[in-house]
Amino acid sequence: xxxxxxxxxxxxRGTERVEAFSDGVFAIAITLLILEVKVPxxxxxxxxxxxxxxxxxxxxxxxxxxxxxxxxxxxxxxYVFKLFEKTDHSLNLLNLLFLLCxxxxxxxxxxxxxxxxxxxxxxxxxxxYAFGLLxxxxxxxxxxxxxxxxxxxxxxxxxxxxxxxxxxKYVVSVVVYSIAVYVSWVAFKLGLACCVGLTLxxxxxxxxxxxxxxxxxxx
Length: 219
Description:
The protein is an all-alpha fold. It has one domain. The protein is built from eight helices and no strands. Helix 4 runs antiparallel to helix 6 and helix 5 packs antiparallel against helix 6. It is elongated and about 65 Å long.
């Protein structure tokens, strides 16, 4: 009993629980987006409902863009965690940081939808939204770099070139979102265009195989 030592694996476990918890956060965050699109109301006065609904197009735009972005992160999260052999305490904390950034995204989405047509505040709204997109991109990249460094948690069969391509893709996305934050402050339409363009880019599936072909094993 006195010579019993703790498991050297520490908190390293499979990724199933992390993925299940993350799926729940994704589902809540993506649902909250629609709650920020408010039903037009004008107590005590007659309104043109069709016109009022049409004027909500900035909220629709922000909703669709954020919905697609969160959906892409959900798909990538599912894909990338299949590349991990295990998880550990640090990766769990980094994943929580990433999920915090995802759960924050409905707020800048609501701000953009409310102020995108406001001449005096549209620049601030667009910049704040671009910053809201930068946060998950940055936290996602930190999580990937930690898992990938020295092949700490990733499947050791993964090809080095494949790992390099994913790393470059994530780092470039952080750079582009950082540029979008700056550009949004100067020209909000151009900044939003950068965000939309990067979102469309991430809709494309991975082009490179995750694992090399397995050799047949003689029994």
